Amino acid sequence: MSKRLTTVAVGLLAGVSLSAVVAQDMGEVNVQASRVVKKVIGTTSSGVPIEDISLSYGVSTGGLDLSTAAGAAELQKRVGNAATAACKELGRQYPNSSTSDAECVKKAIDKAMIRVNELVAAAKQPK
């Protein structure tokens, strides 16, 4: 009996862990910042120059109720902070890029807001 109970407990724990991983994946926004670098950093095997550099940060929706205006606003703030941090880091690493910090941040936020809007809309759907 004890062996069976242990097996059931392990199975339940694995199921809970798996559902937590799935929930985290659905509740994250990927913020990708990119810059165009004037200096060619390499070429592909066919000789095409590689000039675009990007950096991605994951933004968690943990602790937010996206069905409320306050929750949606906080997620937008988190996305903005991640975009700013990513663009600053790219600017530090590639100071000769032709993309400004402001342009980089705007593009990164615009891309990420597609996912933010999807998550907010899903949270507002009746269950």
Tell me the number of strands.
Answer: 2
Count of helical regions: 3
**What's the Cα radius of gyration?**
20 Å
Q: What is the mean pLDDT?
A: 77
Which stretches are poorly predicted, pLDDT < 50 over at least 5 residues? Answer: 1-25
Order of helices and strands: HEEHH
How much of the sequence lies in strands comes to 5-15%
> What is the 3D form?
elongated
Helix content class: 55-70%
Task: Provide the spatial order of strands within the biggest beta sheet.
Answer: 1-2
Distance between the termini: 39 Å
- Quickly count the domains: 1
Please summarize the sheet with the most strands. 2 strands, antiparallel
Describe the structure.
The protein is α+β, with helices and mostly antiparallel strands. It has one domain (28-124). It is built from 3 helices and 2 strands. Helix 2 runs antiparallel to helix 3.
Keywords for this structure?
single chain; 127 residues; alpha+beta; two-stranded antiparallel sheet; disordered N terminus
List the helices and strands and how they pair.
Layout: H1 2-26, E1 28-36, E2 52-60, H2 69-93, H3 101-124
Helix pairs in contact: 2-3
Offer a quick outline of the entry.
By secondary structure, the chain is α+β, with helices and mostly antiparallel strands. It is built from 3 helices and 2 strands, in the order αββαα. The radius of gyration is 20 Å and the shape is elongated.
